[in-house]
């Protein structure tokens, strides 16, 4: 196992997750469908707890405006947003058996396998091998038919090995053509059959549907929750009394027809997202609470570092990263900090988290800067939260398409007086000369940036004539403008209101990926007795908070057991009773370790009647009190106290 993968006993974890019904493949008895999962009671409770903490941390603490918008989305919306054209991955096919691959994943897996083979060969020859390239277990690596094909000990030329490492460090930066070239150059084939694969073609990831009985209104299942938030921007701004900046938020399902779903919950076709759209003034992307996060130290992997073929992050405070321009602005930096705090609060391991900046080609079509919170798992570094600066892209395209204003109007403290070069047409000559081209040419001249207009004016003054070229209009082509057709001059304007389209900073959380990564970070196997699997969740996250179990199946424990469970549950504390008489108390503790239940109350003749502790468990769960506090403050009372007393 290479250095960029977390070493855990995954088979044991996977069997635990199935056995204790965290989640399981959907439609299993029909054979299942790749990339679709059902959550069981344990996984559902865990997911709900993560979402509640997310709501507390973001929606409530930051006073965000939470919405819940439609999943089914008319095609026109997603055409305008660019998803119909551009929300795609590159796919290639085995030329003989038709097996389909996501092109970047295939290239990555094959090249990784070759580097591992190289490391094996070098090790066998007694060479020193860099830690990152060294397979942890040679025998396993050889036997293991990996996604990239069996690892064969074959030494690569030094320069080739170096180049492969550099390609892998920036694999997300290759487009279809680039991936096609890599496939040809390195003779990348289907690892299982050895057959050649086709050149990559684009595959749109959205699930298509039709709305209504006529089948004429095309729709898609949304691939992100963001669009609903953008379309409601004006209503939200009004709800916020026209005050900027503000953020909306939504938790809900999204759908992506992934080419090759894999790695359990990490790449699925239906998943829960929690997204924030923070609307901010483009001229001033400050955040009022930036100071609260500026001293947090984070591990950053900037684009410049990746382009050098390096994978080692830098550790830096958020304040410094923004000051040095590594993170573009304070709002983006603020959210990197808040994401960090959230992931720490749920129990992600600090050393297994980094923020990686997107490379230029990797960036979604709407983004101008993007940092991913990546968490190290046994599958490698996984993007769990994307934090993108979507600029004014979405509001602008929707406003242009619908002709609805999606902007902020702010009364200026002082009126703004300024001179600007404008073009006015001489109607008597302009229309008759240009005929049907008159309108598009006029629009062109009126919307031209001032510097361009100045150039046209210079030409008119010098030659009496200027030529312009239109495209995308009903009168495309070259048109001549003469001096008598227009007058270009400076005019004075006074503005009382500033109108602008906000920029959007979008932290976007994949709840399933976070949940799975957290499970890996909370998982261990006790070496002492029978290799028992243990999950150690923080109390606020744990699916069940308290285990109640009788010391034995003595009849006198039944009532206190029931009473304690009832009291805990009515106080909002999910508690499970494990009174299976057949299992020893040790066995019962062990099987609840598998659920990550943080507290246990054993009912014996003493504790069954101590009602004080019951109330305290609630504080424990919220994190206000620790178990040590409880044991320090309260002595377990004797059997004389009545079970029904508070
Ligand atoms: N197929 C998926 N399965 C599970 N979670 C996903 C999937 N696609 C995206 N996510 C989650 O949604 C978040 C935001 O989505 P975003 O569009 O930024 O992902 P992405 O960059 O397309 O992901 P990737 O590059 O891994 O396909 C991701 O950080 C991730 O946690």
From TrEMBL:
UniProt signal peptide: none
A biological process term (GO) from this entry: mitochondrial glycyl-tRNA aminoacylation
A Pfam family recorded for this sequence: HGTP_anticodon
Enzyme Commission code: 6.1.1.14
Keyword Repeat set for record: no
Recorded superkingdom: Eukaryota
Gene3D superfamilies: 3.30.40.230, 3.30.720.200, Anticodon-binding domain, Bira Bifunctional Protein, Domain 2
Chain segments carrying region Disordered: 128-148
TM helices/strands, residue ranges: none
EC top class, as a word: ligase
Span of domain Aminoacyl-transfer RNA synthetases class-II family profile: 220-539
Keyword vocabulary terms for this entry: Aminoacyl-tRNA synthetase, ATP-binding, Cytoplasm, Ligase, Nucleotide-binding, Protein biosynthesis
Record flagged with keyword Protein biosynthesis: yes
Catalytic activity entry: 2 ATP + H(+) = P(1),P(4)-bis(5'-adenosyl) tetraphosphate + diphosphate
Family note: Belongs to the class-II aminoacyl-tRNA synthetase family.
Record protein name field: glycine--tRNA ligase
Species, as recorded: Linderina pennispora
Lineage: Eukaryota, Fungi, Fungi incertae sedis, Zoopagomycota, Kickxellomycotina
């Amino acid at each position: 196992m290479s250095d960029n993968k977390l070493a855990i006993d995954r088979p044991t974890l996977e069997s635990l997750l199935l056995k204790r019904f965290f989640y399981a493949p959907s439609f299993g008895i029909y054979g299942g469908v790749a990339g679709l999962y059902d959550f069981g009671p344990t996984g559902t409770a865990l997911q709900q707890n993560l979402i509640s903490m997310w709501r507390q941390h973001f929606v409530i603490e930051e006073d965000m405006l939470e919405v819940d918008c439609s999943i089914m989305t008319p095609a026109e919306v997603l055409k305008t947003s660019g998803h119909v054209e551009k929300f795609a991955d590159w796919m290639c096919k085995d030329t003989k058996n038709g097996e389909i691959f996501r092109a970047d994943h295939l290239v990555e897996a094959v090249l990784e396998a070759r580097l591992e083979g190289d490391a094996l060969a070098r090790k066998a020859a007694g060479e020193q091998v860099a830690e990152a390239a060294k397979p942890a277990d040679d025998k396993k690596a050889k036997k293991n038919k990996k996604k990239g094909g069996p690892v064969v000990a074959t030494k690569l030329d030094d320069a080739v090995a170096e180049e492969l490492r550099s390609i892998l460090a920036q694999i997300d930066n290759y487009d279809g053509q680039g991936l096609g070239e890599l496939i040809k150059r390195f003779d990348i084939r289907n690892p299982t059959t050895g057959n050649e694969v086709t050149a990559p073609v684009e595959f749109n990831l959205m699930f298509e549907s039709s709305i209504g009985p006529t089948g004429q209104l095309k729709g898609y299942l949304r691939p992100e929750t963001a669009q609903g938030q953008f379309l409601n921007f004006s209503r939200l701004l009004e709800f916020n009394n026209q005050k900027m900046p503000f953020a909306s938020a939504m938790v809900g399902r999204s759908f992506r027809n992934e080419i090759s779903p894999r790695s359990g919950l990490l790449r699925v076709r239906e998943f829960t997202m929690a997204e924030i759209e923070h609307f901010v003034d483009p001229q001033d992307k400050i955040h009022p609470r930036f100071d609260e996060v500026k001293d947090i130290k984070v591990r950053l992997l900037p684009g410049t570092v990746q382009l050098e073929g390096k994978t080692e992050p830098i550790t830096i405070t958020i304040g410094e990263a923004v000051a040095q321009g590594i993170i573009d602005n304070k709002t983006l930096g603020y959210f990197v900090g808040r994401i960090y705090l959230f992931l720490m609060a749920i129990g992600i391991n600090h050393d297994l988290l980094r923020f990686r900046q997107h490379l230029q080609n990797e960036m979604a079509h709407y983004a101008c800067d993007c940092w991913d919170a990546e968490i190290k798992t046994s599958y490698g570094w996984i993007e769990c939260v994307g934090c993108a600066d979507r600029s004014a892209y979405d509001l602008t395209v929707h406003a242009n398409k619908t002709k609805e204003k999606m902007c902020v109007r702010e009364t200026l403290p002082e009126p703004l007086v300024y001179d600007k070069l404008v073009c006015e047409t001489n109607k008597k000559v302009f229309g008759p000369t240009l005929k049907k081209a008159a309108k598009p040419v006029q629009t062109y001249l009126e919307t031209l940036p001032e510097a361009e207009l100045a150039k046209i004016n210079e030409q008119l003054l010098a030659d009496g004539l200027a030529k312009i070229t239109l495209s995308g209009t009903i009168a495309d082509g070259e048109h001549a403008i003469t001096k008598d057709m227009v007058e270009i001059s400076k005019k004075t304007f006074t503005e009382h209101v500033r109108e602008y389209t906000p920029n959007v900073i979008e932290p976007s959380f994949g709840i399933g990926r976070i949940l799975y990564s957290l499970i890996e970070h909370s998982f261990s196997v006790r070496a002492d007795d029978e290799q028992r699997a243990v999950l150690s969740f923080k109390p606020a996250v744990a699916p069940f908070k308290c285990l109640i179990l009788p010391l034995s199946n003595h009849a006198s424990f039944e009532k206190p057991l029931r009473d304690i469970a009832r009291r805990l549950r009515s106080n909002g504390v999910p508690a499970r009773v494990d009174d299976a008489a057949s299992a020893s108390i040790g066995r019962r503790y062990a099987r609840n370790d598998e659920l990550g239940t943080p507290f246990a109350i054993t009912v014996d003749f003493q504790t069954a009647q101590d009602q004080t502790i019951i109330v305290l468990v609630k504080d424990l769960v919220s994190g206000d009190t620790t178990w040590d506090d409880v044991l320090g403050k309260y002595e377990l009372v004797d059997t004389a106290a009545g079970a029904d007393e508070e």
